């Protein structure tokens, strides 16, 4: 099939079955700078703004992309070649559809020292700086949620405030310029999967500023806003399958994005310099963001961690494949219903039980090729952020932790680096070698795993957790994952 190269000049020739921007992209003006232009941002935040623009609204809020890693420059070059347009492909068991999203209009060159990024954020047209830099990217101790001032990246930025290497150092430097030039503050909007992500973003930026410029720190704290938000949409990584799929549709797009047929965005309405009318396209503005995000983080994100470790050990490549495995599906249902739902409160229109059913359906969607490896990545941060807070509450209220302890034991076994069929698990954590070493030691002495204070904090010394964890880890090593899941689920 002949394909059309995606760019502004070819939009009118894109195959008729693919929706495209109806607005004049040349008339758009910047209002948002987004750091971390990955697939999720383009399928979620950029799509919501695109929907507004399709209605003739918010044309003064177009997105400028940005990043601070070498990968981001590669992404910029690919997107620049197609005028920052993205093909979104919605994958549903009943079929697929596609549209071209045009809400991004530029991308800041990625350079060491981040001077172009700082200068662009300092311009008065930028009124929101949003981020998707992963939940582990905020320089927070996962065991305490405290700012990690000793991290080498932070030390560098304190010593080199005009040429920082982190996104937060660049934000601080840009806010200093805005204050000095009289341009006023902007809103910092985290779109990462963190409990209280706005509060964490405020903590990181203000704490970093306080280390070198206390007056600036006070100004940021008093004038900038950092609304908490909850974001939700399953968006797989782009690989050869997605590249082939977009070409089947007749479009030559080097950075297409596939996604499920579900989106949700809940935000506190705290924007110091204005915002797009996102509420007109389905965004929920609420002062109960904490409840929405708790439901999502504890059921969806924790649910991913419940199934991913077992899937890796059983050589199951995809999340839908994990949910097709009877033992893993039973593990998901039992842990979610018995040990997580009691610590989730209902939100308007949704109970914890109905949300568990919804997430199960979304995980089982075979059209979404979301890899087990992607979901299992950076388990140290994800277990600490999604599962351990539930365990703390359960222990404090004498609730059940048996299934949660099993999930931790499965992860500890996974970090050994071998699957049950003998194949190797490629490094899948920033500290993989250390986790592999400790996993090997824990095979003989399970407590060694729980003694990782940077992950478990004081939980590692809890006797009830230690007993349950040791039981499950020894059973996994002795009998394997399948047999262990049958024991837990009462099917053996």
Automatic annotation (TrEMBL):
Record carries keyword Repeat: no
Record-linked InterPro entries: 6-PGluconate_DH-like_C_sf, 6PGD_dom2, Mannitol_DH, Mannitol_DH/Oxidoreductase, Mannitol_DH_C, Mannitol_DH_N, NAD(P)-bd_dom_sf
Top-rank taxon: Bacteria
GO molecular function: oxidoreductase activity, acting on the CH-OH group of donors, NAD or NADP as acceptor
The protein's name: Mannitol 2-dehydrogenase
Coiled-coil stretches: none
Limits of the Mannitol dehydrogenase N-terminal domain: 31-280
Ranges of residues in domain Mannitol dehydrogenase C-terminal: 289-476
Keywords of this entry: Oxidoreductase
